[in-house]
């Protein structure tokens, strides 16, 4: 299979950046300045980056990250000014992240217009502010899911972007969605939008293009490999479960565990390469179709 290589550290290389940025869920990020002015920015550069469920008396921990432009990008037919949310987060490092359902496609376009700083996109787009309980910015009532978030770190990314790391401290979900979500699919149930491209239409206008998910194409991972109960589990558990399936014998399992013990004691692929190769081959045989 032929491949083409692009060295992105060279200034004259212009690949389709959608090879790098896949379709990503769209959401509003609502911020507030010291005077109480709300800003809403539609965003796709970011997602949930960590989630741990409540355990042993400790609450769950959920983290989200996204990027906003901190410098204006000006090019022919594609001018993007510094995001007003960037200015607001410098003053008050809190925000509400609201996933955008397909029915709010037009409103997502309106909130992305060059509305003057300090004028609320919520008001211009005809949306309704949803008061937050733990932070100062409001959410958006028309969005079925609103995440209250506190920014705990920001990272400057190159010439144009600042990346924000947030802890989600509360989530506000429509009761109707809670009743509908029998399969536990969460935000999938709101028919979310996914940004798939930015390109010119037949009239030469540069526009965002969105896609949607299809319930008929939800696929479950293979049930005949891996731990029987856990999503990932531990290596010893995986081998025990493969023995339960009949894919390996008890003797096989013990030999594989011994190989792993020897490999973990010396993970040098040169001096301990024979053990690495044998362990790899045994595992490949287990997972082979």
Q: Based on CA inertia axes, which overall geometry fits?
A: globular
Number of H/I helices: 7
Radius of gyration, in Å, reads 24 Å
Number of strands: 12
What's the N-to-C terminus distance? Answer: 22 Å
Strand/helix succession? EEEEEHEHHEEEEHEEHHH
| Mean pLDDT across every amino acid position | 92
If you had to describe this structure to a student in words, what would you say it looks like?
By secondary structure, the chain is an alpha+beta fold. It has two domains: 17-216, Roll (Pnp Oxidase, Chain A), CATH 2.30.110.10; 235-287. Helices cover 23% and strands 27% of the residues. The protein has seven helices and twelve strands. The strands form three sheets. The protein has a seven-stranded antiparallel β-sheet with strand order 3-2-6-9-10-5-4. It has a three-stranded antiparallel β-sheet with strand order 1-11-12, with no helix packed on it. A two-stranded antiparallel sheet has the order 7-8. Strand 9 and strand 10 (161-173) form a beta hairpin. Helix 5 (235-245) packs antiparallel against helix 6 and helix 6 packs antiparallel against helix 7. The protein is globular and about 70 Å long. The two termini are 22 Å apart. The model has no long low-confidence stretch (mean pLDDT 92).
């Amino acid at each position: 299979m032929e491949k083409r290589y692009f060295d992105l550290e060279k200034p004259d290389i212009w690949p389709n950046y959608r090879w790098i940025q896949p379709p990503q869920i769209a959401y509003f990020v609502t911020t507030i300045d010291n005077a109480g002015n709300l800003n809403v920015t539609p965003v796709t550069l970011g997602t949930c980056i960590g989630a741990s469920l409540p355990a042993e008396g400790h609450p769950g921990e959920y983290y989200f990250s996204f990027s906003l432009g901190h410098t204006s990008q000006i090019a022919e037919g594609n001018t993007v000014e510094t995001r007003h949310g960037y200015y607001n987060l410098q003053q008050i490092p809190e925000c509400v992240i609201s996933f955008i359902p397909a029915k709010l496609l037009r409103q997502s376009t309106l909130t992305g217009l060059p509305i003057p700083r300090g004028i609320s996109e919520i008001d211009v787009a005809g949306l309704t502010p949803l008061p937050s309980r733990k932070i100062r910015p409001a959410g958006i009532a028309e969005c079925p899911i609103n995440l209250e978030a506190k920014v705990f770190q920001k990272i400057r990314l190159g010439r144009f972007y600042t990346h924000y790391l947030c802890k989600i401290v509360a989530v506000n979900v429509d009761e109707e969605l809670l009743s509908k979500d029998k399969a536990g699919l969460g935000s999938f149930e709101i028919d979310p939008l996914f940004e798939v491209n930015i390109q010119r239409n037949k009239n030469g206008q540069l526009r965002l293009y969105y896609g949607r998910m299809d319930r008929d194409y939800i696929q479950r991972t293979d049930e005949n490999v891996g731990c029987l109960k856990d999503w990932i589990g531990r290596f010893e558990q995986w081998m025990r479960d493969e023995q339960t399936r009949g894919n390996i014998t008890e003797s096989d399992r013990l030999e594989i565990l011994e190989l792993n013990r020897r490999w973990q004691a010396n993970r040098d692929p040169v001096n301990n390469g024979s053990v690495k190769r044998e362990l790899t081959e045994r595992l490949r045989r287990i997972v082979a179709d």
